[in-house]
């Protein structure tokens, strides 16, 4: 089916139940750098992505310019640590994740993935839960340290891959407050994922976002009319009216 709407999907906590595992691997990789000072409150960093955290921590320790070898070594270590944990524990999808990607493929929504994880780890996560993806539709922090740049690049990539010069709608689905903020900055639609009992779900709801308990609700929103957002819905982050995919 011809695509004329874009669906930007986060991975950790949105498609895969991988946040604790990823945090453990990231902490190990960061501690292995042997930095004199290491702030482990990742949410306080300017860019909440693997490479953004790595670069900022290095700069805080006097390393302003990173060599490609140093960055590659960090990514290899992080990937190895995550691969070990994945082999030990396995990984589950967020309920409805695979079904959403499959359902969207049959609609006018073109799917792209935008994640703060590095590429190799992100590939492992999607494959572990059986979500098919094309490499060109996966945008990671290996390419962009900034979440805003990630989402911007994902939308641009979707326009190219799916041949959508003028998207009728662009909607981001994520589980983090940063996902909501970036969507607001870019003026695109946003739907959160998280149960009312989860910290992320409560936080997003407190900021006025529309939040699904899981992705089965998102699947049901891909109606025969392809309307993920009700016409005239308001983006709580910006106060602007969102387009729907008519």
TrEMBL record:
PANTHER family: BLL8046 PROTEIN (PTHR43434:SF16), PHOSPHOGLYCOLATE PHOSPHATASE (PTHR43434)
Molecular functions (GO terms): phosphoglycolate phosphatase activity
Origin: domain of life: Bacteria
GO BP of this protein: DNA repair
The species this protein was found in: Ralstonia syzygii R24
Protein name from the UniProt record: Hypothethical protein
GO CC entries: cytosol
């Amino acid at each position: 089916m011809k695509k004329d709407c874009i669906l930007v999907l986060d991975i950790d906590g949105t498609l895969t139940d991988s946040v604790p595992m990823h945090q453990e691997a990231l902490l190990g990789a960061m501690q292995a750098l042997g930095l004199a000072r290491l702030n482990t409150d990742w949410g306080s960093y300017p860019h909440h992505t693997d490479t953004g955290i790595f670069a900022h921590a290095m700069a805080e320790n006097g390393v302003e310019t990173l060599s490609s070898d140093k960055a590659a070594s960090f990514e290899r270590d992080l990937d190895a640590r995550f691969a070990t944990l994945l082999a030990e524990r396995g990984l589950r999808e967020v309920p409805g994740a695979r079904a959403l990607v499959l359902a969207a493929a049959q609609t006018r929504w073109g799917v792209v993935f935008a994640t703060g994880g590095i590429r190799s780890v992100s590939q492992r996560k999607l494959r572990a839960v059986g979500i098919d993806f094309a490499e060109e539709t996966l945008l990671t922090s290996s390419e962009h340290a900034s979440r805003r740049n990630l989402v911007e690049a994902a939308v641009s990539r979707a326009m190219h891959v799916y041949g959508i010069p003028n998207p009728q709608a662009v909607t981001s689905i994520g589980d983090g407050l940063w996902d909501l903020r970036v969507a607001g900055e870019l003026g695109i639609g946003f739907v959160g994922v998280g149960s009312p009992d989860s910290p992320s779900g409560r936080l997003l709801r407190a900021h006025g976002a529309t939040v699904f308990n899981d992705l089965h609700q998102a699947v049901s929103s891909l109606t025969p009319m392809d309307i993920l957002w009700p016409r005239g819905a308001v983006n709580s982050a910006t106060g602007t009216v969102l387009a729907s995919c008519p």
